[in-house]
Amino acid sequence: MNNADAVSPLLRKRTGELISDSKALVSSYPAVPITVDCVIFGFEENELKVLLIRSDLQFFEGKWSLLGDILKETEELKEAAYRILLQRTGMSDVFLEQVKAFGSPDRHPGGRVITIAYCSLLNIQHHELKIYDNELHWHKVKNLCNMAFDHQAIVVECYQWLQKRIQEHPLAFNLLPEKFSLRELQNLYEAILGVELDRRNFRKKFFSMDFLIDLDQYEENVPHRPGKLYKFNFGKYEINKKKWFAIDF
Amino acid sequence: MNNADAVSPLLRKRTGELISDSKALVSSYPAVPITVDCVIFGFEENELKVLLIRSDLQFFEGKWSLLGDILKETEELKEAAYRILLQRTGMSDVFLEQVKAFGSPDRHPGGRVITIAYCSLLNIQHHELKIYDNELHWHKVKNLCNMAFDHQAIVVECYQWLQKRIQEHPLAFNLLPEKFSLRELQNLYEAILGVELDRRNFRKKFFSMDFLIDLDQYEENVPHRPGKLYKFNFGKYEINKKKWFAIDF
DNA sequence: GAAATATTATGTATTTTGTACGCAAAGAAG
DNA sequence: CTTCTTTGCGTACAAAATACATAATATTTC
């Protein structure tokens, strides 16, 4: 860092003269290492899960960490998040959105590091999903503990963000296979929101929105009467978003 | 920047050995200058406004810029935002929330600078509000143009964030005086959301939430029948948030 | 001071949406 | 064939959103 002679815009006296050398200005600014962390959610056995890796810092020995990396010099923030996702899961076409920047001066034991947290949603059963590193594991979001850095707080923020978002937008479908039954969809909402919903009213609500495509196919290998399978009509949703109603809580 | 020998967590080979010197690790990371930018909204003459300053970079001569500053070495992100607010407006007890990080590599002509955008809401008529710098001006959000950096995009994101938020939480009151009439409140919602609402139903909705305190005082110096003045009961809201209903759109 | 005008304040009728159930049909298991 | 579970459809009732009517109170105008 080279901030000895940095003059912040806030303290700079306005002389009427404009700053001509903006490169010199920026070089005088103190700099901070930036990382991007991905909170990758999946849904398995009726539980919301998050993908974590064992920390490779001695300081956090045995603790779990989010999947992150250093931001490259000429890389977009989102680009970095996609890069992490691709390398860790083998998947490229996944839902990804920025949630929040975390920048407490003491959040990293090695000095100040600011991280931008991204939330990602994917289908754990997807055929493209390939997790090579055996230090990677899916963890139930319900009982997280023993996490490195401020990563527990980051997961909590992303989880709350997700709870709000799935009620307002059709994000939840990213966590399911392309074809799903209404029961699977309901289980997902119940698990994420932590509530019990009435089957019949849940069904009625989704049908009234008219975004589900009836595939005229049925579940297989279920130990009960198979339910119909549906697809979400993302195209129709984009055209007429207003018909999306908030889900009960 | 000292990233010649930086090894990203993603590429680091997992040998089973843990990293003991986390300070050396962080020092090897490339670093980026960080700024915090405040999108300060106010409400005046039935219009949403944003506080801007003339850019002091020759590159952006004549263009308008958000109020921002360099992040200090041991400063919390939010702390920096409060510092900017205090120095620019003289106010310390204002609504402030992080909205998004903006980090395109080319958003600053002097080299890469990442900024964390905060949204702030204040009452333009507040007696504590003191704007010293005569390069500072309130601008209508409706017709912004000629802005420096990516600041126009940042304002747009914050505006959209605000539109969503005022429907779900009682943020709007931060833009009004402590005592306000129902008409002022409705004008505020109509201006921010860009819709027309029915007076009688708007009133009914707010009264049914039961968060407004009837002050038994009336408007003064208005050219028509004075309306009753109310205060928002933040305490009651904190206890029973569930009674907040979404406002119409 | 009376009438016209503008705005506040309150109410009601209708429609739409949410909620709580009942029950038949389809498959699985014994 | 009977029992159990789950899907799928329907209906009655309660709550909320919407549209609109009218009275009350102040200012302005003549």
How would you describe this structure to a colleague?
The structure is a homodimer of 249-residue chains. Chain A starts with 21 loop residues before the first helix and ends in a 10-residue tail after the last helix. The mean pLDDT of chain A is 93. Helices cover 27% and strands 25% of the residues of chain A. With 249 residues, chain A is α+β, with helices and mostly antiparallel strands. In chain A, strands 1, 2, 3, 4, 5, 6 and 7 form a seven-stranded mixed sheet that branches. Chain A has a three-stranded antiparallel sheet with strand order 8-10-9. At the A-B interface, helix 1, strand 1, strand 4, helix 2 and strand 5 of A face helix 1, strand 1, strand 4, helix 2 and strand 5 of B. Strand 1 (31-44) of chain A pairs antiparallel with strand 1 of chain B. Chain A binds a DNA duplex (30 and 30 nucleotides) through helix 5.
If helices are DSSP runs of H or I spanning 4 or more residues, what is the number of helices of chain A? 6
Q: Pair with the most extensive interface?
A: A-B, 61 and 61 residues
Number of strands of chain A: 10
Round the Cα radius of gyration of chain A to an integer and report it.
Answer: 22 Å
Strand content of chain A: 25-35%
What global shape of chain A is seen?
globular
Query: Overall pLDDT of chain A, averaged?
Result: 93
Oligomer: homodimer
Structural class of chain A: alpha+beta
Give a short account of the largest sheet of chain A: 7 strands, mixed
Helical content class of chain A: 25-40%
Query: Kindly, what is the distance between the CA atoms of the first and last residues of chain A, rounded to a whole number of angstroms?
Result: 49 Å
Tell me the series of helices and strands of chain A, N- to C-terminal: HEEEEHEEEHEHHEEH
| Spans of at least 5 consecutive residues with low confidence of chain A | none
